[in-house]
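Structure ticket #2291
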Amino acid sequence: MSRLKLQWALTRVAFVMCILLAVQFFSQLGLLTTQGPDCEQMREVRERVGVQANPAGSIEQVVSVKTEAVITQMPEVKQDAPENTIKNAQKLIDDLKRIAVELTETQRALGSYAVHYHRIGKQIQSLNSVLKSLGGETVQDGRSSLVQKSVSAPKKEVCPEQFMGKTLAYGYPFFRKGFERQNCTEFVPINKLITIVVILPDELSAADQFQVFKGIAKYYPNIRIVSASKEKLPIDVITKLKLNLKNIVTKELTHGETWSELFQEVATPYVLFAPDITHFTDDINLERLIRVLSDNNDAIIAGGSHRNLRGEWDIGCLQVTFRNWTAFFRGGYYHSFTECVVCDVLSGPFVAKTEGLRQVGLDKK
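Resolution: structure written out below.
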């Protein structure tokens, strides 16, 4: 019985396999299919047959039918009218200008926060670039002078500088030379441009004080000097060095009233404030500082690096931020132009425009 059952099962399996092979064979021949007839293919066949049957009169009809079929199959593309495109572009320009104006107003409110001020300034510049590329009018703000600075030179007060070397190794190893002033005729004598306001440290000896004034007389002869001291300077120092000096005796050398009194003696367009200086050497370049101020209408104060008694140089540029009624000072800068960095505080001597500084005023407290 078991053999009969096994033989019967094998017979059934063989029969099913034969049926499957037959179905696969007929499907390969195309006689069996699960898809409906392709109407497009059938129409192409009829069109070809029609062209062959009537080659004289059916070509135009077939072509027109094919063209119509292609047109009906193409998706419908909606194109905006030129008026809509112009309106959309104008709306985008208006939105960008509105954002730029709001950022400009926010920037003015952040004048005492250097980090955020210059960060928003860069965003305004980016928006103006996009507006310019779209053909719109950029947003200009004369009060945001650090973002959009107009550089102009109304007159040439000092001679321009030129790098005299052919390579950057010129002046190696100490680089005491490099940029030199050119000879020019359109300039104002330095003693008519600037006045030096100086207060020497108390701990400086008489001999060291003499060396400071000797350096001023050597590099800037006949320049106007206004000095404050607790004791009157020796007359022989003034006469020997041929100084154009006015000495004011006061007890409070670091008091705001003292600096205000010294500042009242200034009659030149520029003034050098030099508190607690111990040396005056050829590292001091007043012409360069005056050139920076004269070439930039928005700047009223310019300073340079200074060196302490240990020979260490400091750029003297500090940024200030206010948080919780507390001022925080940190070194570095967030903005620069024409090889100058913008600072909130200068820790060393500085040159200022006299009229601009008078408008700002000095705190007598």
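Closing remark: The two ends are 125 Å apart (CA to CA).
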